[in-house]
Design brief:
- The protein contains two helices and seven strands.
- By secondary structure, the protein is mostly beta strands.
- It has one domain.
- A hairpin with a 2-residue loop joins strand 3 and strand 4.
- It is globular and about 45 Å long.
């Protein structure tokens, strides 16, 4: 099921009951291979659990699993990659990593609270980051959700025009 099918289905949609009947699909930037990056992955040798800030009082526990080092459009960047303590205890999510970020498209063409990319634990020292797969947190569509706020270290001072754009019915 693609993301638009998921959002249009009342059983899986994050949209409000009022918004669901008006849903016509999410807007995406055109897919661009320039935003599929091979990053140098640096594993955090001593991950300490911490409570990540969210849009509510909820404080989910994550660890900084590692860092992605890469160059995009002439800018050297380092983004922290996280693993949820709760997810790593569940067999089907044990290999999942979480990359929340903000960039200069936020509040203009994309959701103001930042976007997310789901990753898998890399086998070596390289991790592929596909910004074309960047998506909005559910709180971009419905204020009832509690969404992790990208830590300041993952606020980058360039535009990343890739992935899901802002949803205008919220």
């Amino acid at each position: 099921m693609d993301i638009n099918q998921k959002f249009a289905d009342s059983a899986s949609s994050p949209l409000t009951k009022e918004g669901l009947p008006h849903f016509e699909g999410l807007e995406f930037y055109p897919a661009d291979p320039e935003y599929i990056l091979k990053a140098r992955f640096v594993l955090n040798p001593d991950p300490e659990p911490f409570e990540m800030e969210t849009t509510t009082a909820r404080k989910p526990v994550y660890v900084k699993y590692g860092e992605a080092h890469f160059n995009l459009n002439g800018t050297d960047l380092v983004l922290e990659i996280y693993q949820s303590n709760k997810a790593k205890e569940m067999e089907e999510f044990r290999e999942f990593l979480f990359l929340p970020f903000k960039d200069l498209t936020n509040s203009i063409e994309t959701y103001g609270g930042g976007r997310y990319i789901d990753l898998k634990i890399p086998e070596g020292e390289t991790i592929i980051i596909d910004f074309n797969k960047a998506y909005n947190p559910y709180c971009a569509y419905n204020h009832r959700y509690s969404c992790p706020i990208p830590p300041k270290v993952n606020h980058i001072n360039i535009e990343i025009p890739a992935g899901v754009m802002a949803y205008n019915d919220h």
